[in-house]
């Protein structure tokens, strides 16, 4: 009887982590790394303008700032890793490590946003430093407490066995991550924290720190344990999806669908031409102050700007008329 119960628990755990491998811990989840890059970009900009512009301090002389900048670059690149085709599914241990780094980066971005909310409401550099001395240990404590709690929680759950509800929850969690609401929440929290000051800002920062630490340390702990299971057995490797396009496939599909009749394609091309024209003019030395611009450069810029603005205006008007006519036909 005990052996049967033990086998049931082991089977339940196995099914849970197999579902985790194909959902929240899937290699294609690296495409959400842009959310972490977005959060880190906000932190880097805050640090740069607050220290450099406000107090003449070079943020690049700070090792932590440089580390965060490197992490930002990694998260941008990580968005493209799932577009390498079947390679990431053949190297699943390496891809899971990269996913773990991406998830850590997203978690780090949320903690840094909480740091901004808690610290940057100070009115001067001295107050900023005083708050930072308190906030940094608090955030570190939240993270450590989260990992310790979920480490012992995972050990207890492995003994009891994961429920079917938890297993099914993996699939719902993956689908919700791809919704736009995720980035809207991050953006709203960061902007709200920047606007608020005093007690409200502190409450938002503290509650956000605790919430992020609780949620993400659980995910990181489980993905870390899944990585351990993958090194032991290929039973925990995820299945490669049938539809797995590479970056070249997506670019080719986009080029096949490219048409100057489509406003979004046409306006994008016009903007690229304008940027190229500006770069050429800059490299020819026409950016120097006091220089007399030649006739072809002045009218070339004017024509490009007028073309983009006029095309954009006509496209918007055409879109509104088209939607209005559709609604009118629907009522009939």
Give a written overview of the molecule:
The protein is extended. The protein has helices spanning 2-21, 33-55, 63-78, 87-90, 92-119, 125-160, 164-177, 181-195, 198-232, 247-256, 263-283, 295-331. α5 runs parallel beside α8, α5 packs antiparallel against α9 and α8 (181-195) packs antiparallel against α9 (198-232). Residues 176-184 have low confidence and may be disordered. It has 332 residues and is mainly α.
What descriptors fit this protein?
12 helices, single chain, 332 residues, extended, mainly alpha, 2 domains, transmembrane helix
Unreliable spans are 176-184
How many domains in all? 2
Helix tally equals: 12
Radius of gyration, whole Å? 26 Å
> How many runs of DSSP E, i.e. beta strands?
0
What string, H for helix and E for strand, traces the elements in order?
Answer: HHHHHHHHHHHH
Mean pLDDT: 78
Largest sheet: none
| Percent helix range | over 70%
**How far do the termini sit from each other?**
70 Å
Shape: extended
Briefly note the structural class of the backbone. mainly alpha
Structural topology:
Elements lengths: L1 H20 L11 H23 L7 H16 L8 H4 L1 H28 L5 H36 L3 H14 L3 H15 L2 H35 L14 H10 L6 H21 L11 H37 L1
Helix pairs in contact: 1-7, 2-3, 2-5, 3-5, 5-6, 5-8, 5-9, 6-9, 8-9, 11-12
Gist of the model:
This protein is an all-alpha fold and 332 residues long. It contains twelve helices and no strands.
């Amino acid at each position: 009887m005990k052996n049967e119960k033990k086998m049931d628990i082991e089977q339940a755990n196995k099914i849970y982590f197999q579902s985790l491998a194909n959902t929240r811990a899937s290699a294609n989840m690296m495409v959400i790394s842009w959310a972490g890059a977005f959060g880190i970009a906000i932190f880097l900009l805050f640090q740069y303008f607050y220290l450099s512009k406000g107090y003449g301090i070079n943020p690049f002389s700070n090792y932590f700032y440089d580390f965060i900048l490197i992490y930002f670059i990694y998260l941008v690149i990580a968005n493209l890793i799932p577009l390498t085709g079947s390679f990431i599914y053949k190297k699943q241990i390496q891809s899971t490590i990269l996913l773990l780094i991406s998830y850590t980066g997203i978690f780090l971005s949320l903690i840094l946003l909480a740091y901004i909310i808690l610290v940057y409401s100070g009115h001067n550099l001295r107050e900023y430093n005083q708050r930072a001395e308190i906030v940094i240990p608090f955030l570190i404590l939240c993270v450590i407490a989260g990992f310790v709690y979920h480490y012992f929680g995972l050990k207890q759950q492995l003994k009891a066995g994961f429920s079917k509800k938890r297993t099914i929850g993996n699939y719902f969690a993956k689908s919700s991550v791809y919704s736009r609401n995720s980035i809207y929440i991050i953006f709203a929290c960061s902007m709200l924290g920047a606007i608020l000051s005093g007690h409200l800002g502190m409450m938002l920062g503290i509650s956000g720190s605790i919430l992020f630490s609780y949620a993400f340390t659980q995910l990181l702990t489980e993905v870390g344990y899944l990585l351990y299971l993958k090194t032991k057995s290929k039973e925990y490797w995820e299945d490669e999806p049938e539809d797995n396009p590479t970056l070249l496939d997506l670019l080719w599909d986009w080029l096949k669908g490219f048409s100057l009749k489509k406003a979004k394609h046409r306006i994008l091309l016009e903007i690229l031409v304008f940027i190229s024209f500006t770069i050429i003019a800059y490299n020819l030395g026409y950016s120097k102050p006091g220089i007399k611009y030649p006739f072809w450069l002045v009218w070339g810029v004017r024509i490009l700007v007028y073309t983009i603005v006029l095309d954009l205006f006509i496209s918007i008007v055409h879109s509104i008329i088209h939607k209005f006519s559709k609604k009118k036909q629907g009522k009939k």
